[in-house]
Amino acid sequence: MAGPERNGAQLDVEKGGDGTLTLVLRGRLAAESIARVWERGRRALRQRPGARVQVDASGVTYCDGAGAAMLVDFDRTCARTGGRLELRDFPEAFQPILDLVRPELREPPAAEPCPPWESVATFVGRRTVELLRDARSLVGFVGEVTVAMLHAILFPHRVRWRDVLRAMQTTGVDAFPVVMLVSALLGLILSYQSADILHRFGADVFLPFGLALSIVRELGPLMTAIVLTARSGSAFAAEIGTMKVNEEVDALSTMGLDPTRFLVTPRLIAAVLVTPVLTVFANLAGLVGGTIVGTLQLGLPLVTCINEMRKALDLTDLFGGLFKALVFGTLVAAIGCHRGMQTSGGAVGVGAATTSAVVSGIVLIALADAVLAVVYYHLGL
Amino acid sequence: MSDPQSPVVVVEDLTSGYGSKVIVEHVSFTVRRGEVFGILGGSGSGKSTVLKNIVGLLPPLGGRILIEGQDPYALSHRKRRELLRGIGVLYQQGALFGSMTLAENVELPLHEHTALKRHARRAVAAAKLHAVGLAGYEDYYPDEISGGMRKRAALARAMALDPHLLLLDEPSAGLDPITSAEMDKLILRLSSVLSITFIVVTHELASILAIVDRAVMLDKEARGIVAAGTLPELRARTDLPFVRRFFARATPEGGDGDAGA
After folding, report:
1. What percent of chain A has pLDDT over 70?
2. What does the pLDDT look like over A12-70, one tens digit per residue?
């Protein structure tokens, strides 16, 4: 016998000699009190497949929706094993609840069938098609953005400068501390990693030289762009994505406003303007971080460090790095906005768009960096 | 078992708002067991604010709320959770979780509050969905069904734990008249079969006339209750311009007659 649960649900199982099975239910059949009774009842029904089952419900004092669902489940379990269930003396007062949850004898509408397992070839093919579609959509988006930017250049008074300033605040000013911190730590790490090997060859003096080149030409713009992808690219995707699922983007279109011009242009202009500026500060922080190691760890005089850095760098290096930053900033903002505009399907869609903005942003930055490295090499920069 | 005559919800001299902004003040009413009680009023009158106070989401700035004789804001976290377990809420937009199927949405509170095994939770979810007319839709996701069906699925989730009190925030909002009428019928059916006490927050006249037994009317200007009572009593208050304007749309002539009731 299953002992009474909280508030007293109870089940006795009686096995008759003629193959009948009687389940005697007593007490309160409610969600919080029937878990054990339910399990015991199912077990008893499975142990006697095909049996004639009687459920004696004369002792039931209360039954809610969950209790009624249990009785329906007993009925189904019994039917599945080829048996037949008869409910006896169920209190009249709770009959309407049972009627409310008892499934009608009709075929329910078929749910979407689960997709079958696909082969590796199908999977690769499907993903390739998806990738090509995404690339095509990106090309279309680049076209829209180009037109919107040309429009902004030709008609600057039509640009929403207040939105540009707000985006510059969030993309640039708010990102300033984290960009500085990451870059300073990067310069520090880079110097520590190089110090030992340079010291072995007695080439300590070349530390500031190498540091300046790597930070200004490569790592400063790269780290700034990665921080921006994580902070601003994801934020752009989430903001625009939420607007998309709330039909605010549709509302813009129906009001005759171009969503690209309204939502993307201000963010893109902000990113293009602030990324090079942030990169200058990132370079500075990286060089300071590296110089601290050079002077304290390797004992290089500060003047030597600064002179070596000045020897290493010329304006081409600085502007080459800043141009990279400009390209990265454009990519980060564009991909963030694009993923936002592609969002569909509620909160889950916004999450997916945000993740996709960060991943795509980092991949595009790496690709652009590789292309620019090849171009700079051939141009002799 | 609770005393059938005792009030389910008592709101005493409630003042509520957000931060220093007061939305309603000195609001008092009592909801009796088994009735469909309406909180009526225009946009911005504080209907949803009072609802948030009742369900424990917004502490009142003044006054108190008693649910089954207990003030949820004066209870310990555990006891408050226990008390609120007996309350179901249907939010205006349904608030179904988009990443879960309808059955999973309904199973969620059962998983949290009962010891039922997975198959049992599934059976209860199927039964609840059947009760709201969504049998066979267990494995659908919210974005695969219509707005009216989403509302009904949300109602099934609100009923998952067989609450004795169900609060409905604008149950007909955004639904076409036919679907809205079906929703009203469903509420009446559940009210009669399950003996649930309903508090319905709405400004939809057709719904008010179809389902509400007693109601209070909130007004933005008055920042509180302007009229209370049964529907005929409310409609008889032609001396109150707000009440007159509110019910005017129920009559073809725009007068105060009974047409449309």
Report:
1. 93
2. 988 877 778 889 999 999 888 899 999 999 888 888 888 888 889 888 998 888 888 99
Q: Quick check: A35 and B139 CB within 8 A?
A: no
Asked if B43 and B55 sit in the same domain, the reply is yes
Sheet holding B197-202, edge to edge: B87-90, B165-169, B197-202, B36-41, B214-219, B224-230
Å between B217 CA and nearest CA of chain A: 31
B194 close contact with A: CB closer than 8 A: yes
Residues pairing with B29 in the sheet? B11
Residues of A in Cβ contact (< 8 Å) with B123: 69-70, 72-73
In a domain, B110, yes or no: yes
Residues of A in contact with B86 (CB under 8 A): none
Asked if the model's pLDDT at residue B247 lies above 70, the reply is yes
Last residue of a domain, one of B128, B162, B196: B162
B5-64 tens-digit pLDDT: 679 999 999 999 987 789 999 999 999 998 999 998 888 889 889 998 998 888 999 999
Residues B65 and A190: their CA atoms lie apart, in Å, by 63
Q: What is the pLDDT of residues A28-44, one digit of tens each?
A: 998 888 999 999 998 88
| pLDDT per position as a tens digit, A213-234 | 999 999 999 999 999 999 999 9
Range A9-101 has CATH code 1.10.357.10: no
Q: Are A215 and A187 in contact (CB under 8 A)?
A: yes
Q: Are residues B244 and B169 in the same domain?
A: yes
Q: Which amino acid is at B168?
A: L
The reply to whether B73 and B134 lie within a common domain is no
Residue type, A165: L
Which pLDDT does position B233 carry in this prediction?
85
For chain A, say whether B143 makes contact (Cβ under 8 Å).
Answer: yes
* Mutation site, A100, A102, A106, A350, interface B, largest B CB count within 10 A: A100
Provide, as residue numbers in chain B, all residues whose Cβ is less than 8 Å from the Cβ of A96.
192-193
Q: Which of B123, B137, B138 sits opposite A73 (nearest CB)?
A: B123
Which one of B162, B181, B203 terminates a domain? B162
Determine the longest span between alpha carbons in chain B, in angstroms.
58
- Pairwise CB contact (< 8 Å): B135 & A64: no
DSSP secondary-structure letter at B32?
E
How does pLDDT run across B174-199, given as a tens digit for each residue? 778 887 888 888 888 888 888 889 99
Residues B57 and B171 in one domain: yes
Same domain, yes or no: B186 and B139 = no
C-alpha to C-alpha distance for B252 and B260, rounded to whole angstroms: 8
> 200-229 in B: which are within 8 Å (CB) of A?
none
Q: Are residues B147 and B243 in the same domain?
A: no
Q: 0.80 cut: is pTM over it?
A: no
Q: Any CB–CB contact under 8 A between B4 and chain A?
A: no
Summarised one tens digit per residue, pLDDT across range A138-183 is 888 888 888 888 888 898 888 888 889 999 999 999 999 999 999 9
Query: What tokens does B123 get?
Result: 């059976």
Contact call for residues B112 and A33 (beta carbons, < 8 A): no
Q: Does residue B117 belong to the interface with chain A, where contact is any CB pair within 8 Å?
A: yes
- Across the interface, whether the CB atoms of A65 and B128 are under 8 A apart is answered yes
Q: How far apart are CA A272 and CA A326, in angstroms?
A: 6
Largest CA distance in chain A: 104
Q: Per the domain annotation, does B154 fall within a domain?
A: yes
pLDDT in tens, A331-344: 999 999 999 998 88
- Count of domains for chain B: 2
- Residue of B191, B243, B173 whose CA lies nearest to B8: B191
pLDDT at A215: 93
Q: Residue B135 is part of which domain span?
A: 101-162
